[in-house]
Write a structure and sequence with these properties.
- The protein is mainly beta.
- Among the domains are: 33-121; 124-249.
- The protein has one helix and 30 strands.
- It has a four-stranded antiparallel β-sheet with strand order 2-1-30-29, with no helix packed on it. A four-stranded antiparallel β-sheet has the order 3-4-5-6, with no helix packed on it.
- Strand 7 (84-90) and strand 8 (93-99) form a beta hairpin.
- It is globular, with a radius of gyration of 20 Å.
- It starts with a strand and ends with a strand.
- InterPro entries: Ran_GTPase-activating, RCC1/BLIP-II, Reg_chr_condens.
Length: 369
């Protein structure tokens, strides 16, 4: 039988990684939250923010499962929806969740309540749901609706979560409508946000970015497609990308063949950088090259925080670089506050890492043995 666990490191001022403590975690520590879970395979990391970490434990039988919140809010409650896909929130914590069928539930103080919206502006017989939703650090919201009639390539952008919520409650309310509607060629497979913008991945493997173009964060030229509209990251065109991750001013992309590409800036306003980004043109993405025993590594997973990056190699080894002021790279107390070159993260004995995740100033490692 596979034994699975979840470890974490980094910013813990609200006890979001280790309840009962406010001390940052500089070495990988098993999450107290989940040590009593019957089956770690059934636990999903839903949301990782500045002040809160939220998990979803799948239900059995007729149960929709449980939502476990730690940090600025500490509570465990029954999930109002089954098969949760993701959560969304801001620096204050969780704002809501949605499931694989497009169902949405909004966080109301310590509760998470399912939402049913009217659909007058969309269809006479459909209730709008959410296929993808991301909230940028500047408060902007990007959402792709889930409905039979939606081509899943239309992206609605709101200037504030409150405006999205008011519109979602009553879609015919033009005053609270989206600031702008975008479209990209092809069906969107993934939508993520960073501090001032968004990144989306289509099923064809193309990457599009929009938002603030400073600090090379878009990874593309704004000459043909302006910064506020989705533009193709041309340096990745022709490469089959299967996953993206973004936060702060950086974005990582993982290809079908196990290559990782990185663009943006780790910590703007400082002299610190990640070695592969040094002297990189603002329209280019850097190919990450790490060798082991004389051969270049291929990768299985990527995660990006607000200034740091995690890479999971196919052999199970994990590497990190970037901001480490809160110990988020899990390299120990003696590690530098900023790590320029890729450094290996020590995984607990007898475990093998199978997935990595990142919050703004934290890291998470799913391990098996």
């Amino acid at each position: 039988m596979t034994n699975t666990a979840l470890y974490a490191s980094g910013f813990n001022a609200f006890g979001q990684l280790s309840p009962g403590s406010e001390k940052d975690i500089t070495e990988l520590q098993e999450l107290v939250t989940l040590q009593d879970a019957d089956n770690m395979e059934e636990v999903k990391l839903l949301f990782t923010g500045w002040s809160e970490t939220t998990f979803y434990q799948h239900g059995k039988g007729k149960s929709s499962g449980r939502i476990i919140r730690h940090g600025s809010i500490n509570t465990t409650l029954d999930s109002p929806l089954a098969e949760l896909a993701s959560g969304f929130g801001d620096h204050n914590g969780l704002l809501g969740v949605y499931n694989s069928k497009g169902g949405v539930a909004f966080a109301e103080e310590t509760q998470v309540e399912a939402h049913v919206a009217s659909a007058d502006s969309l269809s006479d017989d459909e209730t709008p749901g959410v296929a993808h939703l991301a909230i940028a650090g500047n408060g902007h919201v990007a959402v792709i609706l889930a409905s039979a009639s939606s081509p899943r390539n239309s992206i609605l952008e709101f200037t504030a979560f409150e405006k999205f919520r008011q519109w979602f409650d009553d879609e015919v309310n033009v005053y609270h409508g989206p600031r702008i509607s975008h479209s990209v060629p092809g069906r969107v497979a993934q939508l993520v946000a960073n501090v001032t913008g968004f990144v989306c991945l289509t099923q064809e493997g193309n990457v599009y970015t929009w938002g603030d173009a400073r600090h090379s964060s878009l990874g593309r030229s704004v000459a043909e497609t302006e910064a506020k509209s989705p533009g193709l990251v041309e340096s990745l065109a022709g490469i089959q990308i299967k996953k993206i991750a973004s936060d702060g001013w950086m974005t990582a992309a993982l290809s079908e063949h196990g290559a990782v590409y990185l663009f943006g800036t780790a910590t703007p306003g400082t002299q610190h950088t990640i070695s592969c980004l040094q002297d990189l043109d603002s329209t280019q993405a850097a190919l990450v090259e790490i060798e082991s025993k004389g051969e270049a590594l291929d990768f299985l997973d990527i995660a990006v925080g607000d200034g740091h990056v995690l890479l999971l190699a196919q052999d199970g080894h994990v590497f990190g670089a970037g901001d480490n002021r809160n110990g988020q790279l899990g390299l120990g107390q003696k590690a530098s506050n900023h790590v320029q070159d890729w450094s290996e993260v020590t995984i607990p004995d007898q475990y093998r890492c199978v997935a990595v995740y990142a919050g703004p100033k934290s890291s998470f490692f799913k391990v098996e043995r």
